[in-house]
Amino acid sequence: xxxxxxxxTASLALAATAAxxxxxxxxxxxxxxxxxxxxxxxxxxAAAAPPVxxxxxxxxxxxxxxxxxYIDAVYDGDGTLAKQLRFSYLSAPLQRExxxxxxxxxxxxxxxxxxxxxxxxxxYVDSGMGKTNATVTLTWSGSDTTRLHVQAxxxxxxILSIKx
Length: 164
Hints:
The protein is an alpha+beta fold. The chain has 4 helices and 4 strands, in the order ααααββββ. Strands 1-2-3-4 form a 4-stranded antiparallel β-sheet, covered by helices on one side. Strand 1 and strand 2 form a beta hairpin. The N and C termini lie far apart (about 80 Å).
């Protein structure tokens, strides 16, 4: 079927407008998805964020999941969620130990601080004797860091200890 030049021009213009709108939407969506993730705004290429994975049967994944969720809850000022996370992820003896530590030190025993870290990283150390060990690195303003040694039970996947 033959289209008149006017109809063909209108079709091409409509297709170009749709393509431009789709590209603009893709760029805006991409920019808004990365704007808050530390992407440099000066035109430098940003490094891709590493993938995050875990599993509900892994005691190590439970440590990482707990610290990520707990820090978010404390940062957001959600004390109820922070308490629920402690109840779900920490052994009862550790909860009692942290309560005593917090009373003495007037700080959060999970974070060993009065404020909230800007970043966190959990690294696997080893497993043995029914336990898994991890190092949690908390980064504060500048390059100040705190390293915590965290141990979880392989069977219950509950966190058993948090040590400086």
